[in-house]
């Protein structure tokens, strides 16, 4: 499980950015171990721990890719308004009323990171 400090650092990068960021995509894949393979950082890229090169999903560009970060068993909702806002919900309650960011994908990533921090209970 990724420690809270790492999640907070990723969240800050998600919120300060305004568009696609392949380095951040790779860091998200590595930290959250998503995409079907364990990841590790190597040089300027990321590879599977099995030794073959991989491309991280385009989390910061694609809402469909960002959806893969929603924790298993939870759902999400998008709110309309002047900013891009999302919420991540478990079966009992809304974990975060809002996650605002420059793009819909970044807003969803933000609430997913917050939900993971909440689930850790730290």
Attribute tags:
alpha+beta; Bacillus phage protein; three-stranded antiparallel β-sheet; two-stranded antiparallel ribbon; 38% helix; 122 residues
Roughly how many Å is the radius of gyration?
14 Å
The domain count comes to 1
Number of H/I helices: 4
Shape category = globular
CATH class: Alpha Beta
Derived from helix and strand composition plus strand pairing, the structural class reads alpha+beta
Q: Write the H/E string, N to C.
A: HHEEHEEEH
Strand order of the largest sheet: 3-4-5
- Low-pLDDT parts are none
Distance between the termini: 12 Å
Fraction in beta strands: 15-25%
Q: How many strand units?
A: 5
Summarize the main sheet.
Answer: 3 strands, antiparallel
CATH fold group? Bacillus phage protein
- Report the helical percentage: 25-40%
CATH architecture: 2-Layer Sandwich
- Chain-averaged pLDDT: 77
């Amino acid at each position: 499980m990724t420690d809270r400090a790492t999640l907070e650092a990723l969240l800050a990068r998600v919120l300060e950015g305004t568009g696609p960021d392949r380095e951040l995509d790779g860091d998200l894949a590595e930290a959250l171990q998503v995409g079907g393979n364990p990841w590790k950082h190597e040089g300027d890229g990321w590879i599977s721990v099995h030794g073959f090169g991989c491309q991280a999903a385009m989390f910061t560009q694609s809402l469909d890719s960002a959806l893969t970060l929603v924790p298993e068993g939870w759902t999400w909702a998008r709110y309309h308004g002047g900013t891009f806002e999302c919420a991540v919900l478990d079966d009992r309650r809304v974990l975060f009323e809002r996650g605002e960011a420059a793009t819909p994908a970044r807003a969803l990533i933000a609430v997913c990171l917050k939900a993971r921090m909440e689930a850790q209970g730290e």
